[in-house]
Amino acid sequence: MASNQIQNPNPSILEQDLEQEFDYSKRSQWLRAAVLGANDGLVSTASLMMGVGAVKHAIKAMVLAGFAGLVAGACSMAIGEFVSVYSQLDIELAQMRREEKRAGVAAVDGEKREGNLPNPIQAAAASALAFSVGAMVPLLAASFIEEYKVRVGVVVAAVSAALVAFGWVGAVLGRAPVVRSTARVLVGGWLAMALTYGLTKLIGSKGL
C-alpha cells in the first residue's frame, strides 16, 4: 500500500505545480496577433459589406467589397505586424547586447537567448492568416444568398457566432474571464457594423 502511494502522487497537486511553472505570458505574442487579426478581419470586412449593402443591395457589390477588404486588410495587418515586431526585436537585441557587454556573458549564452526573441516574419504571417480567416466568415455567409434582407440577417448571425467563438477561444487560452471577454468582443462587433451601416445609409440617402 505504501509503495502505491509513493508511485501515485495526488494528480491535482501535480497539475497545480505545472500550471504555476507554465508562464501564460509566453502565449501573448502569437495569441495577440491571432485573436486581433481574426477579430479585425471579421469585424472590418463585415462592416464594409454592411456599409456597401446599405446603398447597393446587389450581392456582387457586397461580395466584391468584402473581398477587397480581405486583401487590403490582410496586407495591412501583415505589414503593420512585421514593422512592429521588427522594432521590438531591434530594441530587445540592443538591450541584450548591452547586458552581455556589462556582465561579460559568453557568446553561447547570447545565442540561446536570441532563440527566444520575437520573429517578425512569423508574426506577420500569423496576423495575415488570422485576418483572412476572420474575413472569410461574412464573405461565405453572403456569397450565395440573393435576397438582400435574408443576406444581411445571415451575415449578422454568422459574424455574431464567430465573434463569440473568437472571444471564447482568446479568453480560454489567455486565462481571462470568459463571459466578460466574449461579451466585449461581441458588443464591439455589433457597434462597428451598426455604425458603418447607419452612417453609410445616411450619406447615401443624401445623394452624396
From TrEMBL:
It is a multi-pass membrane protein. It is found in: Vacuole membrane. Keywords: Ion transport, Iron, Iron transport, Membrane, Transmembrane, Transmembrane helix, Transport, Vacuole. One of its GO terms (cellular component) is vacuolar membrane. The keyword Endoplasmic reticulum does not apply. GO terms for molecular function: iron ion sequestering activity; iron ion transmembrane transporter activity. It catalyses: Fe(2+)(in) = Fe(2+)(out). InterPro entries: Ccc1_fam. Vacuolar Fe(2+) uptake transporter. This is Vacuolar iron transporter. It comes from Salvia divinorum.
